[in-house]
Design a protein that fits this description.
Helices cover 31% and strands 12% of the residues. It has a nine-stranded mixed β-sheet with strand order 2-3-1-4-12-11-8-9-10, with helices on both faces. It has a three-stranded antiparallel β-sheet with strand order 5-7-6, with no helix packed on it. It has 475 residues and is of the alpha/beta class. Helix 3 packs across helix 13, helix 8 runs parallel beside helix 9 and helix 11 packs parallel to helix 14. The protein is globular. The protein has one domain: 3-Layer(aba) Sandwich (Arginase, Chain A), CATH 3.40.800.20. It is built from 14 helices and twelve strands. A hairpin with an 8-residue loop joins strand 6 and strand 7. The structure holds zinc ion. The site of zinc ion (ZN) has 7 residues, from loops. Belongs to the histone deacetylase family. HD type 1 subfamily.
């Protein structure tokens, strides 16, 4: 396949999205990756070897090495149509400051090695008893909880879908650590967009594993983005001003919006920030909810327009939700974003809503050319012009997960692959039968979201967006 087929003509930049910032700038994109992260993530019992397939495919497409899509001075990009800085020539060291010059554009893409979290980092959210257990050396040896107390395991959620597995302590520390490394890179201005596809473990509770999630990297990352920063940097908009006493430099906390596109309700993340720090963190989960569907909680129902907490939003969709349903809903999501005006966005890109997932509940496509698809939504989020942390999540058809996160990486890195690109020959090539192409097209599942139901959801969201704007204006 030629370069032209791999990388189609880029779309017009950032058109008509809420919160669009007109100034063009060099975007710093970092992918959190290390061989150790891949090896540990591949041990996750619910997603064995998914990470190996993902990074093998990314390597095959040249996404595990740095590049630049545009650099002042011209030249041509290896494999790309735009810009200069062949191969890793345009990559920067971690500590370099971001350029934000008027009139400059393009992307610097590079790989950032994650640091493991410490126990103290995890203790910012998790309970001590839970950490004692999942970080103990005996847990590192346990396979399926052998030799452990069944009562204790049950109490900590370490049974059924979250069994103990070898190297769980190292896994928990590195998955959380990678999300924290990513958050720090955003906070320090090293990254405009940070990607950690092994993160997004949105069901892990303070004292209990749940839904294939052992460690709550999402909450930890949001907490870090909310850490006190001197008023002068890095963001300049208003926020929670703290500690402005005489002789003391005032500090503030940024506003963070969490948007969750996984098939399942983001229960633990929404719960962590509900009714707290009003106005600081907004959580918005778009998911499926029906009797008995995981996680079974009343909170997964449509948020009431008169809710006491308009910063914790839940948008359930009926079975079969596809591109058209997401396209209908998306402008309302953007109105919430504009009303809240976040400085940081955390986007959970779980893939179990994609067509072909074994959950067989939603029917979302991938190709950004299709309005409402996952690729299209990610491109819209880029158009918001906010510093963003992109996380993974569910996704149980490993080849499709590898396709999707590889494709999304290429979009975020400013060098979008063609969804119809052939899968390159590599060690897992045979897993991509029968299409052997990158795309995950929507299937033929019937979309049960009626126009009336979607109109109702959009109406409720619009009321909530107005309330959020009103609350922000009165601060
Ligand atoms: Zn899920």
């Amino acid at each position: 396949m030629s370069d032209t087929q791999l990388y189609p003509t880029p779309p017009a930049e950032n058109s008509n999205s809420s919160g669009e910032r007109k100034k063009r700038q060099v975007k710093q994109v970092v992918l959190l990756f290390s061989p150790q992260l891949m090896a540990l993530a591949s041990l996750l019992p619910s997603n064995r070897d998914r990470a190996r397939m993902l990074y093998a495919l990314m390597h095959a497409y040249g996404l595990l090495r740095p590049f630049a899509t545009v650099a002042p001075g011209g030249g041509s990009l290896q494999h790309g149509k735009r810009g200069s800085g062949a191969g890793g020539g345009g990559a920067r060291e971690e500590e370099e400051e971001e350029e934000e010059e008027e009139g400059e554009g393009g992307t610097q893409y590079r790989i950032l090695k994650p640091n493991a979290a410490t126990r103290a980092d995890l203790a910012e959210y998790h309970e001590r008893e839970y950490l004692d257990y999942i970080l103990s050396p005996s847990s590192a040896q346990a396979e399926g909880g052998e030799g452990q107390s069944a009562l204790v395991l049950d109490d900590l959620g370490l049974t059924d879908d979250c069994p103990l597995f070898p190297h769980l302590p190292a896994y928990a520390l590195l998955i959380a650590g990678a999300s924290l490394t990513a958050a720090s890179a955003l906070l320090r201005g090293i990254a405009t967009y940070a990607l950690h596809w092994e993160g997004g473990r949105h069901h892990a509770h303070r004292g209990r594993a749940a839904g294939y999630c052992y460690v709550q990297d999402v909450v930890l990352a949001i907490q870090r983005l909310r850490s006190l920063q001197p008023v002068a940097q890095p963001a300049r908009a208003s926020g929670d001003i703290v500690g402005a006493e005489v002789g003391e430099q005032p500090k503030r906390r940024a506003r963070v919006m969490y948007l969750d596109l996984d098939l399942h309700y983001a229960d633990a993340v929404c719960q962590a920030f509900a009714h707290s720090r009003a106005g600081g963190v907004l959580t918005l989960s778009v998911h499926h909810a029906s009797p008995g569907f995981y996680p079974s909680t009343a909170c997964a129902a449509l948020t009431r327009p008169d809710t006491a907490d308009p910063y914790t939003l839940s948008l359930p969709l009926a079975r079969g939700a596809g591109n058209g349903t997401y396209a209908r809903l998306w402008p309302a999501v953007e109105r919430v974003t504009a009303a809240f005006d976040p400085e940081y966005v955390v986007l959970q890109c779980g893939l179990d809503a994609l067509a072909g997932d074994p959950c067989r509940t939603f029917n979302l496509g991938l190709d950004r050319a299709e309005e409402g698809s996952l690729g299209w939504m990610v491109e819209r989020v880029l158009g918001w012009g906010r510093r963003t942390l992109f996380l993974g999540g569910g996704g149980y058809e490993s080849a499709n997960a590898a396709r999707a996160w590889t494709y999304l990486t290429s979009i975020i890195a400013g060098r979008p692959l063609n969804a119809r690109a052939d899968i390159p020959d590599h060690v897992f090539f045979g897993q991509y039968a029968p299409s052997f192409t990158l795309d995950v097209p929507a299937g033929t599942m019937r979309d049960e979201n009626t126009r009336e139901a979607l109109d109702n959801i959009v109406g409720v969201v619009d009321v909530l967006a107005d309330r959020i704007r009103g609350l922000r204006c009165s601060m």
